[in-house]
Amino acid sequence: MGVIKAAIGDAVFTAMWVFCSALRGILTRIISTSFGLQDFFPVKLFISTTLATIFIITFIFIGKLLGGASFNPSTSLSSYTAGLKSDSSLISVAVRFPAQAAGGIAGIKAILQMMPAEYKGMLKGPFLKVDLHSGAIAEGVLTFLFCLSLLVIMQKGPRNLILQVWLFSLSTAGLVLAGSGYTGPSMNPANAFGWAYINNKHNTWEMFYVYWICPFIGAILAAWFFQFLFPAKTNKQKKA
Prior knowledge:
By secondary structure, the protein is mostly helical. The protein has helices at about 1-35, 40-65, 75-80, 90-115, 115-120, 130-155, 160-180, 190-200, 205-230, 235-240.
């Protein structure tokens, strides 16, 4: 029953995040245009990073209200592998993945239904822009860096939550820019699956290979590398 409750929470949480994530680009455009600064990339980057910071902090509190819900299968797997989800099992983590994917679909459908026609052209999900293997490697590497930065910043970074989230938002923006010519990028299989479902590409080898398998490999490697960089203290060391 606890696993089912967690899965439902993840589905709702992911739908909300995917909706807001798609909205962020449009809000960035609206805000920058209102000040006549739509052609200044540093300003747009600052606005987008600030919005991401606000969204993430808000979702951290919402996630706690939903019992530790997650909206990204990659970060869920990375946190579990790194030993940060001691109250979860591999089976419970795996059960939550389909719920997150379903939430991704719901979030995309909601934003497409609610968005005014003049902005719908700006709603685009991740898609492969290079050959299959290059895209798979790129998405895997980007997810590795994404998950590693999350682990390092949130576990070993500054204690101030706002500063933590801002640093993570900035690092994510850099990864998005770096991967924009390859896969989008997504770094979130649930988000990618939602867009693929809308475009009837959710059951393709490209979807699973590029946006599920390789990100999961990257997430696991990020957790292992984090454990290598910051080995857990043994009981003997703690007593000393």
